[in-house]
UniProtKB/TrEMBL annotation:
<keyword id="KW-0808">Transferase</keyword>
<dbReference type="GO" id="GO:0005953">
    <property type="term" value="C:CAAX-protein geranylgeranyltransferase complex"/>
</dbReference>
<dbReference type="Pfam" id="PF01239">
    <property type="entry name" value="PPTA"/>
</dbReference>
<dbReference type="GO" id="GO:0004662">
    <property type="term" value="F:CAAX-protein geranylgeranyltransferase activity"/>
</dbReference>
<dbReference type="InterPro" id="IPR002088">
    <property type="entry name" value="Prenyl_trans_a"/>
</dbReference>
<keyword id="KW-0460">Magnesium</keyword>
<feature type="region of interest" description="Disordered">
    <location>
        <begin position="104"/>
        <end position="128"/>
    </location>
</feature>
<comment type="similarity">
    <text>Belongs to the protein prenyltransferase subunit alpha family.</text>
</comment>
<protein>
    <recommendedName>
        <fullName>Protein farnesyltransferase/geranylgeranyltransferase type-1 subunit alpha</fullName>
        <ecNumber>2.5.1.58</ecNumber>
        <ecNumber>2.5.1.59</ecNumber>
    </recommendedName>
</protein>
<keyword id="KW-0677">Repeat</keyword>
<dbReference type="GO" id="GO:0005965">
    <property type="term" value="C:protein farnesyltransferase complex"/>
</dbReference>
<dbReference type="GO" id="GO:0004660">
    <property type="term" value="F:protein farnesyltransferase activity"/>
</dbReference>
<keyword id="KW-0637">Prenyltransferase</keyword>
């Protein structure tokens, strides 16, 4: 992940707007935190934080989508609360109003142009017809700074998805690089995996999917217990199987429809996956994720076609590791009704 300091990200905005100076805010008095119906405890803030948050609530109440509002959201995210949902939401509205082209012409469904409603893009406020590349790059720099501090920030990934949707399929390489950097910090970061799956599905290409299979193979070689990597790989395999079987694609573009594909048990795709499982369970016999993955391949072939192979593998593993409950469970399921 590129090293981006808070000062570098915040520099231009800080020069343009002095967030603490009254001269920039004479027309707008700070407002208190919106009252809660059943308050539990009052948030303790220092004077500066209270002032800036008060100005944010004033901006939001006034419906102001301005450069100073954009700068204010940036400062709050970087210095006060990087997980503040309302601040992130208001920031994106500012981006659309200030940077978006034809902002009034948004997709009512919440999907980006050319992507069907069934694709996993967020739908909070719709998407602009286009957002210029420099504006999206500014958002990506902010995302990188936040991810460096907390790569599991929920609001970060919601914002990233919106920016990716506004950029379209051309940003796929950037999104894969960003998620890859986050996964290098934590290979089981569910948020990063979910985002990666969403952008791959929305900009589906078989060559990309096969490259992703290789990337997950390497990660699973490092840790056969990585359930997130197994889950993502299962999505890729099911989607590729649907392509191979000609089941169909999502309406309006995007990846193939997963499910309903039936492949020959001797298909190279199935053979490769079973080899991967075999290596994983021999390395870590107790890997529940690997055994679950093997069982999850069964719907891709005619009924019962993989049961014998899975049962034989389980017996082989149990011969060397009789304590493996995961292998025993897989054996029972493969031999069961």
């Amino acid at each position: 992940m590129p090293e981006i300091t808070i000062e570098e990200v915040e520099g231009d905005a800080a020069q343009a707007v002095d967030l603490l100076s009254d001269s920039h805010w004479r027309d707008l008095a700070p407002l208190p935190y919106p009252p809660l119906p059943q308050p539990v405890v009052e948030i303790d803030m220092d004077e500066e934080t209270a002032l800036l948050m008060g100005r944010f609530w004033a901006v939001k109440t006034a419906g102001e989508l301005s450069e100073r509002a954009l700068a204010l959201t940036e400062h709050i995210i970087l210095h006060i609360n990087g997980a503040h949902y309302t601040v992130w939401e208001w920031r994106w509205r500012c981006v659309l109003a200030l940077r978006g082209k034809e902002v009034g012409d948004v997709e009512e469904s919440g999907s980006p142009p050319g992507v069907a409603d069934t694709t996993p893009w967020p739908s909070a406020s719709g998407f602009p017809t286009a957002v210029p590349a420099p504006a999206l790059e500014a958002e990506r720099e902010l995302h990188a700074a936040v991810a460096a501090a907390n790569p599991k920030n929920y609001q970060l990934w919601n914002a990233r998805r919106r920016a990716a949707a506004a950029a379209g399929a051309g940003a796929l390489a950037l999104e894969l690089a960003f998620t890859g950097a986050c996964l290098a910090l934590d290979a089981k970061n569910y948020h990063a995996w979910a985002h990666r799956q969403a952008v791959v599905a929305a900009a589906w290409e078989e060559s990309v999917a096969r490259a992703e299979l290789e990337a997950t193979r390497q990660l699973l070689g490092e840790d056969p217990r990585n359930n997130s990597a197994w889950s993502y790989r299962m999505y890729l395999v099911r989607a590729l199987a649907a392509d191979l079987a000609g089941v169909g694609r999502r309406a309006g573009g995007g990846g193939p429809l997963e499910g309903g594909a039936t492949l020959d048990p001797g298909s190279p795709l199935i053979a490769i996956e079973m080899d991967l499982v075999r290596n994983a369970v021999h390395a870590v016999p107790s890997s529940q994720s690997a055994w679950a993955y093997a069982l999850g391949l069964r719907p891709l072939v005619p009924a019962g076609a993989l049961n014998q192979g899975i049962a034989a593998l389980a017996r082989q593993v149990l011969g060397a590791a009789p304590w493996s409950l995961a292998a025993l469970r897989a054996l029972r399921r493969a031999e069961g009704p």
